[in-house]
Each structure stands twice: as C-alpha cells, then as structure tokens.
Design a protein that fits this description.
- The complex is a heterodimer of chains A (299) and B (415).
- Chain A has 299 residues and is α/β, with parallel strands linked by helices.
- Chain A folds into two domains: 2-216, Rossmann fold; 221-284, Malonyl-CoA ACP transacylase, ACP-binding (Alpha-Beta Plaits), CATH 3.30.70.
- Chain A has eleven helices and 14 strands.
- In chain A, the strands form three sheets. Chain A has a six-stranded mixed β-sheet, with helices on both faces. Chain A has a four-stranded antiparallel β-sheet with strand order 2-1-4-5, with helices on one face.
- In chain A, strand 9 and strand 10 (206-211) form a beta hairpin.
- Chain A is globular, with a radius of gyration of 23 Å.
- Chain B is an alpha/beta fold.
- Chain B has 17 helices and four strands.
- Chain B has helices spanning 3-16, 19-50, 59-69, 88-93, 124-140, 144-151, 167-204, 207-212, 217-254, 262-265, 278-303, 312-316, 320-335, 340-345, 352-362, 367-395, 405-414, and strands spanning 52-57, 74-79, 99-106, 109-116.
- The two termini of chain B are 30 Å apart.
- Classes of the chains: A alpha/beta (299), B alpha/beta (415).
Chain lengths: 299, 415
C-alpha cells in the first residue's frame, strides 16, 4: 500500500501541496484528479522521490521510497519525452535496462509490449518518425514493460484517438491482472471512471474527497430523477417533492435533483397514478459531477 | 550493470555514432595534418619566391658576392652595370626573381641597394649577414673568402634548465606543447558542447523527468559526463596518432629537418628529436580529466536551466570565456612560462589545465607548484561537481524563462 501522510511541499512562496493524506491499496487503480495547478504533478513527483517533501511521509508497504524501490516503479509524465533519433526498440531497451530488465527477458518484453500496444511494425524506425499517438504508446511501453509494482500515468489518454485509447485500456487491464498498482491522472472523466477503483480529488494543494466511487457517491447529497414525458401532470408531482430542484434538461425530459434518501418507488407510484409515464430513471452522480462539486467547494 | 553503466553505454554509443563526433574527429585530424604541413609548405613558398635574386654592379663585386650568397640565395644572373629604374617586369624577365641587388664600392665602402618585389618579405638580414665579409674585405683589402672563414663561428647555447639539451629541443617542446594545448582546447570545447546539447535535448524534450524518475540525477550526470570524457579521449588518441603519423611522414619524405621542412621540424617534425617525457603525457591526461570535469559539469548545470534550445547560446555563452582565457594564457605561457602572472594563472581552477600544462611542457616547473595546482584543482573540481550537480538536479524540473542567478541561489537554498 502507498501511504501519504500530511505531505507538504512549497516552491518559494507558493504552497503547491498542503497536508495531503491518502492511501492507495496494493493492486488498486487510483484516479488522482484535480484542476490544473492543483498539486497533482508535485504529489506524483514526491511519490517517485523526484521531489522531496518539506514535511510529511510517503511509504510503500511501510518503507520509504528509495532508488531500489523506484526501479520497480513506472512513470509516464504529462509532458512526454522521447529520444527522437533512437529507434523504438533501442528506446524501449534503454528504459527496460534502467528498470532492471536484462536479456533474454528484455527482448521478450519488448516484443510483448510492442505487440500489446500495436506498434510492432515500427520497431526499427526512429521515434521521431512516428505519429504523436504512436510516440505516446512507445512511452507507455517504456514505463510499463517491466510490469511495475506501482505505475503512475499522468494524462495517459491525452492525444489518443478512441481506438488507441481502447488499446491503452487493454494494456492497463493487463497490468491490473498482474497485480500492479496504478495511479492515473486525467481530465477525461469517462475513461477514468471506467478504469479506476479508487479516487482522490485535490484542489489548491489539498485533498477534497477520496475513496471508491461508491463511497464518493454515498457522500453526494442528491440524486437526479429523469421523467418522461414532460407533461404538466408529471411536473406537478415532481414539484411537490420536498427540497427537490428542477434541472434544465432537453428532449422532453424532466430532470429533478432530489435528496439522496428520497423514496423513489413511492414517487414511481405517484407518477403512474398522475399520468402517462413512459420513463422514470434514478441517476447516480457521475464522477464528473463529484469532481466539479469537489473542486468548487470551499475547504 | 548498474544505472551508471547503462547510461554510460547508451550515451557513449549515441555519441560515437553521431555525425557530430565523426565530423569533429575528422575535422580535428585534418586540422592537425594542415597545421603540421603548413609550416613546410609556407617555408617552401617563401624560399622559392625569395631566394632568387639578380646581382648588378661591378663584375668583380658581383662575382665575389655570388660566392658568398650561394649558400642562401639562388643568383639567377649578374648584370655588369647598375639597373636604371628597375621594374617588376625586370624581375619577371630574370626568372621570376625576388629582387635585384645592386652593389657599389663607394666612398663609404660597399653599399648595397635592393629592389624587391616584396620588400617586407625579402630576407634582408640573411643577405646582409652573407655579404658582410665582402664589405670587410674591401675595407681591409683582404680576401673575402678569408674574412668569411674568420667570421664563421658558432655560438653553442646550453640550457641550464635540465629539461632540454639545447635550444632546438626546447623549440620542439614548445611546438609540441602548442599542439597538445590545441588538442586540449578542442577536446574540452567539443565534448563539453556535447554534454551541453545532450542535457539540453533531454531537458527540452522533457525526457529528463522520465529519467530522474528512474535513476538518480547524480548517476545520470556521471554517466553522461564520463561517456563524453571517454569519447573525448578517443578523439585525442586519434588526433595524436594522426599528428605523429603526419610528422613521421614529413620527416621521412624530405629526409630530415632541413631546407623547407626546417620550420615544420620545430613543431611536429621535431617530435623525433625530443624525448617525450612520460610525466608530460600523464600531466596531459590529468589536466584533461580535471579540465573536462570542471567544464563539463558546469555546462551540464547550465544546460539543465534552459527550457528551449534557442536559449543555449545566451545561457552557455559566458562559459566559453574561461576556456578561451585559459587557451590564450597558454599561448603567453609558451613564451614567458615563469612570469608571475602566468605562475598565478597556472594555479587558478579552469585556467590550470591549459596554463600549468603548457608551463610543464616548456620549463621545469617546481614540483610543489604542480602538486599545489593539482590539489587546488581537485578540491575545486569536487566543489564544482557538487554545486553543478545540485543545480542540475533542481534545474531539470524548472521550466519557463531561464532563471536569474538570484532565483537559482534561492532554489538551491530551499532544495
């Protein structure tokens, strides 16, 4: 398990990270979310010991993260870096060696990961000649080919088309099956929501919420109900719900935020009695809803 | 293999396979061949154009002068009467001669007037030295040959400095020192530029963050610098081999240091005439290593501060100054190796590799000065590596405009 406890880090007068505490269970896929400048990159750099915290501790299975441990970690930074003149295989071999892989396993892993990420045909081409998306896949391969215990991927889906995003998701599922603990930072909520099991939303250098999606949803005060058709009789039933708020909605659908504990089956009976009900749906808050609310809330 | 070995191997192969290394090594070798061949070609050019002369004047005078001048000049013709208003055309007619030398025996004895195509390039002193016996012979009514034999004596100069047997070997040492200092300068500049561009490339392409997430900045920096140093040593070995081969070729092709090869023999061709002390070669390696470490770490630190390749020149430009200063002071040290300023400069880090090495090549430097210089430079190198390593570690993750000195100091204090 990765444990961050009261971690602080400043750059001059700027407090980038202020008392961050969270834990990532071994084998979890953890979504680290937050707006630009929230302190995500600084937190990730501190986890990897690239930056040293001013205060607080970071441990992996109870041990401080040192050079030997870091060799078993992997990292895909948001700002991609690549040796343009090196061929794909050479680049992967270099990073594979730095992560402790040696022949013959090194060559085997290079082949496997080029196959997995569908870049095998580019093995002997200089990286600079590849498209941006394929360069990104090379970088993912460099960060993942040693099948790290712990892998941080900062914005892994950015710049990938939907087909390549699926290829990447397949690679991440492979790592999950191998027991790797993954940390993903992304603004693409849909993919993060689908792949991650745990989440932490930080803003202003502080943790706003963290937990599994179920736990985060459990803390959400309302649920949204969608009702069709948008008739005056159905609307009058919804307007009588205590503390309900109408939400703008299109396509002839009525949308209301109702308290989390509201009795939806009872509402269903009332709506059926009131008119020609064709649709009633209780929607859980999306990760995007939770994110927007979390970063908008004052601490 | 640990991270250092992996980084060293990757960097070394990347460097030796690069066009910059191949072109740099080739250009250096060509320059050495050029430097070694140029003096002889130059000397040959001078002699061929300045040793042909025409003598004019009384036939008795010109006959006697011709005999005296024969060893240094090719007298193409003698004219019995003074030439009136000589022109360049007259020189061309006389087998493209360099000058018409007019001799008269007037009231003040022998008088010589030279009409030369290139007055500045004409060997006036040689002509005067050769013809002095004729002037004396006319004054004392003696025979020029006898006067010439009386005036022909040599001055043997023996060096009290035990380093060299005589002036010739000292001159050869100066030439050799000059060559080695040029090599030292080239090796440091070229390979430090290599470190600079390598670090800048990793920084600007953002690959640096990926690397420092995997290995320590210290290992990364060490791997890079040692790889650049190794390629530098290979370059030096190639250049030295080319220099020795060229020198050997020149000596054997002309049959020894004489005639047109004389000037060359004092630089490269003279290598065969000096005993190249092992200590000097050891000093060369030591000062290359010290100088390279000092400059390479500084270049790496500076390169880690830039975010765009366009900033390389403005940020790294000032670092050329100490290299250039060291190189120029080394040229001065060739002539006045024990001048106080040079002795002091030979103890100053960044300058020592050039200045102390040059002094050691041309004079016997007291051992305590050498030990002091090496000691100061080892301590300074450790300090520079420590400071530059710290800047490098912090600089790799700094992006934006190149930071000001105060910002760097502030970040170093808080890091």
């Amino acid at each position: 398990m990765l444990q961050l406890t009261d971690v602080h880090r400043s750059f001059g007068a700027v407090q980038a990270v202020r008392g961050v505490t969270f834990a990532i269970p071994t084998g979890a896929t953890f979504g680290l979310l937050g707006p630009n400048g929230a302190g995500k990159t600084t937190t990730m750099r501190m986890i990897l010991n690239i930056l040293v915290p001013d205060r607080g501790t970071i441990t992996w299975n109870g041990a401080r993260i040192d050079g030997a441990l870091r060799r078993r970690f992997g990292y895909l930074p948001e700002e991609r870096g690549i040796y343009g003149k090196l061929k794909v295989r050479e680049q992967m071999a270099y990073f594979g060696k730095l992560h402790g892989l040696r022949e013959p396993l090194l060559g085997k892993r290079i082949d496997e990961w080029m196959e997995r990420l569908e870049i095998a045909q580019y093995g002997n081409r200089p990286c600079a000649e590849l498209s941006k998306g394929n360069q990104q896949k090379v970088q993912v391969a460099c960060a993942s080919m040693h099948e790290p215990e712990f892998l941080i991927l900062d914005e892994p889906f950015s710049g990938l088309d939907p087909v390549n995003a699926e290829v990447l998701l397949g690679a991440l599922r492979h790592l999950q099956s191998k027991g790797s603990t993954l940390v993903l930072s992304s603004h693409q909520m849909y993919q993060i929501e689908n792949v991650c099991t745990e989440f932490c939303i930080i803003a202003g250098g502080q943790v706003r919420v963290n937990g599994s999606l179920g736990e985060l949803r459990a803390q959400w005060p309302t649920r949204t109900v969608l009702v069709e058709p948008s008739s005056p009789m159905l609307r009058s039933v919804l307007d009588r719900i205590p503390n309900a708020t109408a939400r703008p909605h299109e396509n002839g659908t009525l949308a209301y935020d109702v308290p989390r504990t509201f009795d939806v089956p009872q509402l269903a009976r009332e709506l059926v009695a009131a008119g020609d009900l064709t649709r009633l749906e209780r929607m859980e808050p999306s990760l995007s809803d939770i994110y927007l609310r979390a970063i908008g809330e004052p601490v | 293999m640990n991270d250092f070995g992996i980084i060293f191997e990757a960097e070394f192969l990347r460097r030796v396979k690069s066009r910059a290394f191949l072109i740099g090594t080739l250009l250096g070798a060509l320059m050495i061949v050029g430097l070694s061949a140029a003096p002889s070609l130059f000397a040959h050019g001078i002699s061929s154009s300045t040793h042909r002369i025409v003598l004019a004047g009384d036939p008795e005078l010109t006959a006697a002068a011709k005999a005296l001048l024969a060893k240094d000049f090719d007298v193409r013709a003698t004219e019995p009467v003074p030439v009136k208003a000589p022109t360049l055309g007259d020189l061309a007619h006389a087998g493209n001669a360099a000058a018409i030398v007019e001799l008269t025996n007037g009231a003040r004895g022998l008088e010589v007037t030279v009409y030369a195509s290139d007055a500045a390039g004409f060997r006036t002193t040689t002509l005067r030295d050769d013809i002095v016996p004729l002037k004396v012979a006319l004054a004392v009514h003696g025979k020029p040959e006898m006067i010439s034999s009386l005036l022909d004596f040599s001055v043997d100069v023996h060096s009290l400095d035990a380093k060299f047997r005589d002036e010739a070997s000292a001159n050869a040492a100066r030439g050799f020192a000059l060559l080695l200092v040029v090599l030292l300068y080239l090796a440091i500049i070229l390979n430090c530029q290599g470190v600079l561009t390598s670090v800048a490339e990793e920084k600007t392409s953002r690959i640096a963050e990926l690397l420092v997430a995997t290995t320590s900045p210290a290992q990364l920096l060490a791997g890079k610098i040692v790889a650049a140093g190794a390629t530098g040593m290979i370059q030096i070995l190639v250049w030295v081999a080319v220099g020795l081969a060229t020198a050997a070729g020149l000596v054997s092709s002309v049959g020894g240091p004489s005639g047109g090869l004389h000037a060359s023999s004092r630089t490269l061709g003279g290598l065969g005439s000096i005993d190249l002390p092992t200590s000097l070669l050891v000093a060369f390696v030591v000062f290359f290593v010290l100088g390279f470490l000092q400059y390479a770490t500084l270049y790496a630190a500076v390169a880690s501060l830039i975010s765009r390749t366009e900033d390389i020149g403005s940020v790294a430009g000032p670092l050329v100054l100490p290299v250039l200063a060291g190189f120029l002071l080394a040229q001065v040290a060739l002539g006045i190796p024990n001048a106080t300023g040079i002795v002091v400069a030979s103890q100053i880090p960044l300058l020592t590799p050039f200045v102390m090495f040059t002094r050691m090549a041309v004079v016997s430097v007291p051992l305590w000065q050498v030990i002091l210089a090496v000691g100061i430079n080892v301590v300074a190198t450790v300090g520079i590596v420590w400071l530059a390593g710290k800047i490098y570690r912090v600089g790799l993750l700094m992006y934006g405009r190149p930071p000001k000195l105060a910002q760097i100091v502030n970040v170093l204090r808080t890091s």
